[in-house]
Design goal:
By secondary structure, the protein is mostly helical. It has helices at about 1-20, 25-30, 55-60, 60-95, 100-130, 135-150, 150-175, 180-210, 215-235, 250-255, 260-270, 270-280, 285-290. About 70% of the residues lie in helices and about 0% in strands. The protein is globular and about 55 Å long. Bound molecules: fe (ii) ion (FE2) (2 copies). One fe (ii) ion binds next to α8.
Length: about 300
């Protein structure tokens, strides 16, 4: 027990020090007044949900760029939605634990990070001048269910999934010179701070999974698969297609059937999937949801 506790505390200590050294205040650290750059993209064009489809071919360059602006804001909006869920789960987690521990102090630090991120994502949507791409009502309500019931393995696995796939898309976009500086800076801030969150969730899963009973594993498998499926299928809101004159349902259908987009989803989950499989989170009857969402 003693060794385990100190290992957890050692990790928390490192994460807390790193938070002090490498954190941002997006309201100050991003130049929100800077003009957008003509000819640059919202996200790398090959990550557009329509890239490579007939619909894509019918769009002008300008329309394609517009679509990627709406898409990057929509992905950030789903990120914001999940961060609100995560903040509540982490707060409930901390509520039951000893606040003198580094582990709990780091949970509180992560809530503070997510709070700044949510404001940053909100401001990005405002700056780009897009509609509020809030998740559709079913997703909204399932999020409420998840944040109410998820704890332990399900909470950390679900969190890890959302954080890791966003990380992959953002890490690529932040280095891409065809992408708007605003997107790149938002992504750089998020990638830097999320690296700690991913570490925290991964290590916590490694600690708690061996102790999880059969029922708890089953719940973790089910809730993670459900979360992964919902988030992957709703990463981009169908209303983004209206920004370039495409009927939202036609756009959504084309995106879901787009092999290029399906490949992007698998690419975004490629590092996470083997880890979750090792931990017994992916596997069993609910693996079908991971497949249907093009994540494995
Ligand atoms: Fe975040
Ligand atoms: Fe996070």
């Amino acid at each position: 027990m003693g060794a385990k506790v100190s290992e957890r505390e050692a990790t928390a200590g490192r994460l807390l020090r790193s938070s002090l050294e490498h954190s941002y205040e997006p309201t100050i650290d991003i130049d929100w007044e800077a003009p957008l750059v003509h000819g640059l993209w919202g996200l790398p064009q090959h990550r557009s949900t329509l890239y490579g489809t007939d619909l894509w071919e019918q769009l002008t360059e300008d329309q394609r760029r517009t679509l990627t602006i709406h898409e990057v804001c929509s992905v950030a909006r789903i990120g914001l939605w999940f961060e609100m869920i995560l903040m509540q789960m982490l707060l409930r987690y901390a509520y039951d634990r000893d606040p003198r521990s580094g582990h709990v102090q780091y949970a509180l630090t992560e809530i503070a990070d997510e709070c700044r991120h949510s404001i940053m994502f909100a401001k990005m949507g405002e700056r780009y001048g897009v509609p509020d791409y809030a998740p559709r009502p079913l997703v909204h309500h399932l999020g409420r269910f998840f944040k109410t019931v998820a704890s332990g393995p399900a909470m950390f696995a679900g969190t890890l999934f959302v954080e890791e796939i966003l990380d992959q898309f953002q890490r690529e976009a932040m280095r891409d010179e065809t992408v708007q500086p605003l997107t790149r800076m938002v992504n750089k801030i998020h990638v830097t701070e999320e690296a700690r969150h991913v570490r925290y969730a991964r290590e916590e899963l490694l600690r708690i999974m061996p102790k999880a009973g059969k029922a708890e594993r089953g719940v973790a498998q089910y809730l993670s698969a459900r979360t992964a499926y919902l988030v992957a299928r709703n990463l981009v809101h169908q209303d983004v297609y209206a920004s370039v004159g495409i009927d939202p349902q036609v756009g959504r259908r084309a995106a879901l059937d787009n092999p290029h987009w399906q490949e992007s989803l698998r690419w975004s989950a490629r590092k996470l999937v083997p880890f979750l499989r090792e931990q017994g989170i992916i596997g069993g009857p609910t693996e079908i949801l991971w497949k249907k969402a093009h994540l494995v």
